[in-house]
Amino acid sequence: MTINEFPAYRLHAGVDGGRPEGRVEQIRVEDLSPGDTLVKVAYAGLNYKDALAMAGIGRIVRDYPRIGGIDLSGTVVHSADPGLRPGQEVAVHGFGIGVDHDGGYAHYARVRHEWVMPLPEGIGLREAAAIGAAGYSAALSLHWMEHCGLAPDRGPVLVTGATGGVAGVAIDILDGRGYTVCAMSGKPAAHDYLRGIGAHVVEAPPDLAGASRPLASARWAGVIDSVGGAMLAHALAAVKPEGVVAALGNAGGGELPTTVMPFILRGVKLLGINANSPMPLRREVWGKLAREYRPRHSDRMARVIDLPQLPATLQSLLDRGHIGRTVVRFS
User: Fold this and answer.
1) DSSP state letter for 106
2) Tens digits of per-residue pLDDT, 267-279?
3) What is the total count of domains within the chain?
4) Does residue 282 lie in a domain region?
5) Alpha carbon separation from 127 to 49, 89, 115, 206, 251 (Å, rounded)
6) CA 51 to mean position of chain CA atoms
7) Domain with 145 in it
8) In this structure, are strands 220-225 and 239-247 parallel, antiparallel, or unpaired?
9) Any idea what the CATH number is for the domain that residue 148 is in?
């Protein structure tokens, strides 16, 4: 198979250490990071981490040039792994793609076969991208929360940062599983959207300017938090006895101004969620995403754009003007 030059969104080092320069340019397969498996990309997701990389915040990308995109779906062109057959539909996320290794914002991606996950039956390429690393993180959170005893009859579940990609899928899955979901968002215009994907109640975030109380009225059986910082501390103080909290983001800061009181007086369980999971766990959770965790509103949550729209959409995500998921279409 002959592959000619193809377009990719590539980041280049900024002048004198400044903001990276991102542009769409023509490249060849030989320009991609090394790997033994070539995937023809169908869709790639837009994530907050991709926006940070574009802006050069946090030194997420250290080596340039780099093709962004931390998750993708596509079909196998060829692989050193005989278990990955040409034309097979797959997803790749994590393992440093889009950061340390060229990612999904190109018509082709070259990766290691150990990173490639065949899609479970029933999930197509567009839906897989709409779920992406964000949706996987949401499902992984619920997987471990239910492992720790969370169930619909235990009480309502709070989802913070509700208009984000992780939170949207979390709301959808929780509602489908029979949970009562409270979505917390500071965007009044998004309330109808949030109710449409499964939120039963929508609340504005509290004033977090002051110190959080060690304990507050117990409201939540569970919390899926993608904000961190003072928001997570506030949520922990209001979790019911034996409740479960999944922490998977730090958009609100990396510090956690809390006390041990929720843990030693109410038995609250705080779970750290790292989506860069080993492959057996990925397969298990993606299997749930194809069955009992299947999102019902993927089309509503994820809009599709083309490659020229990518930089402006990433900037919107960085500016907190973005709702739900967006995927860029390649083929």
Assistant:
1) B
2) 999 999 999 999 9
3) 2
4) no
5) 20, 12, 19, 34, 26
6) 12
7) 134-272
8) parallel
9) 3.40.50.720
